[in-house]
Amino acid sequence: MAHLNETHAPSLRSWIDSANAHDTDFPIQNLPFAVFRRDGTDEPFRGGVAIGDQIVDLAALAAERPFTGDASVALQAAASDSLNGLMALGPTAWSALRLALSKALRMQSASRGLVEACLVPQAAAEFAVPARIGDYTDFYTSVHHATNIGRQFRPDQPLLPNYKWVPIGYHGRSSSIGVSGLSFPRPIGQMMRPGAPSPVVGPCERLDYELELGIFIGPGNATGRPVSMDEAESQVFGLCLLNDWSSRDVQGWEYQPLGPFLSKNFATTLSPWIVTFEALAPFRVPFVRPAGDPDPLPYLDSPANRAEGALDIRLEVDLQSRLMRERGLSPQCLTSTSYRHAYWTPAQLVTHHTMNGCNLRPGDLFGSGTLSGPTLQEAGALIELTVGGQQPLTLAGGESRTYLVDGDSVTLRGWCEAPGAVRIGLGACIGTVLPTTS
Ligand SMILES: O=C(O)/C=C/C(=O)CC(=O)CC(=O)O
Ligand SMILES: [Ca+2]
Ligand SMILES: [Mg+2]
């Protein structure tokens, strides 16, 4: 595979023992970025890289000026309280920093002593949203999600005829994007109950999650300068987990004709770690469309995209209710799927978003859209799993669920495995629903 280099070598091991455990999300082949500080302090937030159960504090490391050239410039940028500066630098600088960190963290590294002084245990850290997100666009890249949810909202025509030709998205809101671990109150909204003569206002009754990936944009493009498929991946800094919490009752009433509005802008949760696109290279897979579906239009097509434009990122959703927590019951897995089923690749999303000259800026965020796989067990939202609330799920401990109940915690997880590669993970994205505040 063209994108593999020495930082992906399965034989690499770190002098940090926890990074060599077979089930760690953060082996030396991963090296994802976050913004963090020591929990409970008023230290400044700064960039960090995960290695095993530790964080390399990039501000502390940058103060030692251990690297030269592009790696040094990238390290100084990553020391800041947001990763926008690092994202702006582009793939050559990202790769140089990754290689320098990989060398510093390997067995027999000459800089072990220096890096050891910059470690903070992950268990002692709190995280921030890793970039100042100027604009957030949520896509709709799972044809299975589009079909399943379409059945609820538009039984006559679940999959609209544009779906297979144009990547559909809506402009989301960045102000309410938070980082894993946050709780949020059940939103209030305006809803039209079935058969009612007029809408009601009150706490949302059909609160849902959406299993998504977040895609952070790198250098961006000038207004009026579309990004071609050949250039598109150099715009992708990395991926994280994203939960697009959704009020289905508000959505069903408000979404026509301009799309979701208040049903989706009250909370969006990200996992703290951004796994770089470079780290994901061993997990690329061919982009394939079901037989009989149209090929993408030429501006959304390229040989490289066909060969390896998709990513096999395994994804899981766990739910734990308040009762389950109180009884010591573990979170229950509701869904397992993979990003490989997506109908559009990250490169196609970048190219489509910029085809009209729209400019992307460093730190902009795309949501992949809800990532449902082909079977119902792979559905990325409760509206699909419970068939619009008609078929409740039974939780461990006997509770039944159609939509989320106050006290429910939802955890998204992601990881990658492939023959001949070391497993890497995206960590977790956790959020908890609180009662409505009045
Ligand atoms: O089919 C619809 O009308 C809307 C679907 C969505 O929930 C929008 C959305 O957030 C896109 C997605 O997550 O795939
Ligand atoms: Ca969504
Ligand atoms: Mg949202």
What are its keywords?
single chain; alpha+beta; Fumarylacetoacetate hydrolase, domain 2; 5-stranded antiparallel sheet; binds magnesium ion
Written account of the structure:
By secondary structure, the protein is of the alpha+beta class. The chain has two domains: 6-128, Roll (SH3 type barrels), CATH 2.30.30; 136-434, Fumarylacetoacetase-like, C-terminal domain (Fumarylacetoacetate hydrolase, domain 2, Alpha-Beta Complex). The chain has twelve helices and 26 strands. Strands 6, 7, 8, 13, 14, 16, 17 and 22 form an eight-stranded mixed sheet that branches. It has a five-stranded antiparallel sheet with strand order 4-3-2-1-5. Strands 9-26-25-20-21 form a five-stranded mixed sheet. Helix 2 (69-78) crosses helix 4 (91-105). The relative contact order is 0.17. The structure holds the ligand O=C(O)/C=C/C(=O)CC(=O)CC(=O)O, calcium ion and magnesium ion. The site of calcium ion has 7 residues, from loops.
Largest sheet: 8 strands, mixed
**Small molecules bound:** ligand LGMQ2O6W, calcium ion, magnesium ion
Distance between the termini: 55 Å
Number of domains in the coordinates? Answer: 2
What portion of residues belong to β-strands? 25-35%
Number of helices: 12
Q: The CATH topology of the largest domain, please?
A: Fumarylacetoacetate hydrolase, domain 2
Summarize model confidence as the mean pLDDT.
Answer: 97
Helix and strand content put the structural class at alpha+beta
Q: Which radius of gyration do the C-alpha atoms yield?
A: 22 Å
Question: What is the CATH superfamily classification of the largest domain?
Answer: Fumarylacetoacetase-like, C-terminal domain
Instruction: Write down the overall geometry.
Output: globular
Low-pLDDT regions? none
